[in-house]
Amino acid sequence: MIIKPIIQGVVARSAHPLGCQQAVLNQIDYVKNAPQIANGPKKVLVLGASSGFGLASRISMAFGGSQADTVGVSFERGPSDKGVGTAGWYNNVFFREEAEKQGLIAKNFVGDAFSQDMRDQVVSYIQNEFGGSVDLVVYSLATGVRPNPETGELWRSSIKTIGEPVSGPTINIEQDTLESMDVGTASADELEATVKVMGGEDWASWISMLNDAGVLDKGCRTVAYSYVGPEVTYPIYHHGTLGRAKAHLHNTADLLNEQLADIDGAAYVSVCKALVTKASVFIPAFSPYILSLFKVMKEKGTHEGCIEQMQRLFGERLYGKSNHVPVDDARLIRVDDWELEPDTQDAVKVLMAQMTADNFHQIGDYAGYKLDFLQLNGFGYDNVNYDAPVDMEKMLALHP
Ligand code: NAI
Description:
Bound molecules: 1,4-dihydronicotinamide adenine dinucleotide
Strand content: 15-25%
Largest sheet: 7 strands, parallel
Pfam families: Eno-Rase_FAD_bd (PF07055), Eno-Rase_NADH_b (PF12242), Enoyl_reductase (PF12241)
Number of helices: 13
Keywords: Fatty acid biosynthesis, Fatty acid metabolism, Lipid biosynthesis, Lipid metabolism, NAD, Oxidoreductase
Protein name: Enoyl-[acyl-carrier-protein] reductase [NADH]
Strand order of the largest sheet: 5-4-3-6-11-12-13
Distance between the termini: 21 Å
Subunit structure: Monomer.
CATH class of the domain at 7-142 and 198-283 and 304-338 and 377-396: Alpha Beta
Order of helices and strands: EEHEHEHEHEEEEEHHEHEHHEHHHH
Helix content: 40-55%
Radius of gyration: 20 Å
Binding site for substrate: 227
C-alpha cells in the first residue's frame, strides 16, 4: 500500500510507519549526541508518551544519558482494515524496539489514561514487573475531553477567550492559506470544563493513586508541561481558557510538591516553547505567532523542537549537575527562556505586524511549520521513499 498524507483541517488522517520510525531514530540520534543527563532517574512513567513532549521526554530519558527503563501510556490506534493507524502507535512500536536493542525495558500501555482500569494495569505492572517503583512521572497528556471520574460524563475543553472575543488570522494547513478567525468568549461552564480537562486534577489524581499504591520511590519527582508565551498571545492563551487551565496545573504542582515531601519527592511544572504538535495546531489564531517565532529563532540559531527542549529540561534543569532545580518566582521551570528573549520577541512583533494572507509564506516560516506538521505524521523525511508501497501485513504484525 502506498501511503500519502491526508490532511483534514488541522488533523492528519494518515500516517507513514517508516517516517514515524525515522522520526524516532532522529530524536534518539539527537539525544545520544547532546550533552548527557548526568543524574537522571532510572525508572520512568510517561503519561502521554506517544508524541510531542511526552515522546521526547521518553526518548531523552532512555537515550540521553540516564538509560532509564520506561513505561508509556498513550491513546493511539493500530493498523486495521479501517486504516493505517496513528503516528503515535508507530512511535510507540519503534521506540520500544530501539530501547530493547539497548537492553532497556520499554513497556507500552495503549488505552485511556483517565480510566481506572488503565491505572490498575499500570500499578500492577510497576509492582510486579518493573522493580516495584518509579523515580520520575512525566505528565504530558493533551486532549480535548476527559470523563468525570464519578459520573463518566464527558468534560469538553473549549479554546476560547475570557472577557472579550478576539479575531485574528490562523493557518489552514489543508489549504495552505491564512484565514481570519473569530475566537469567542467562553461561558462559565466552558471555562470550568476546560480547567477540568487541561488543568491539574487528573495529574493530582494519578500521583495520589501511585503514592497510595506505594510505587513512587523515595525522591521521586513529577513534572507536567505548560505554556505562558509573550503578551501578543495572551488574549488567546495565557488570559484565555487554556491559560486558566494551566494556572490550575501550576497550583497543582505546589500541592503535589507538599504531598511528595513525605517521600523526599518534588513536583514541578516546566514551561515549554511554542511548537507544532498534534495538540497545538488546534489553538486558533496562534499560528502567525509560531510562524514568526520559528523564522526569528531559526535565524538567531536558538530554535528548538520537542527533543531539544526535553534534553535541555532534564540535562540542565530537572537533573542538572547540582541537586538544585532552577525555577522562577512562581516555582516554574522555564525552558521557554530562549523564546521569550526580548530581542526575539521584538523581531517577532515586527513580522507579525507585516504578515498577510498573501505574504505569510515569506514573512513567516510556513515551510518549517508545514514540514513539522507532516513529520509528526511520518511524512516529509528525505530518506523515506514515499512512492514505495508499505507492507501492511508486516505493520499488522507489529505490536506496541
Ligand atoms: P501531543 O498531542 O503531541 O501528545 C499528547 C499525548 O497524550 C499523546 O501521547 C496522546 O496519545 C496522549 N493522550 C491524549 N489523550 C489520552 C488519553 N485519554 N489516554 C492516554 N493518553 C492520551 O501534545 P503535546 O503538545 O506534546 O502536549 C503535551 C503537554 O505539553 C500539554 O500539557 C501541552 O499543553 C504542553 N505544551 C505544549 C506546547 C506546544 O507548543 N505543543 C507548549 C508548551 C506546553
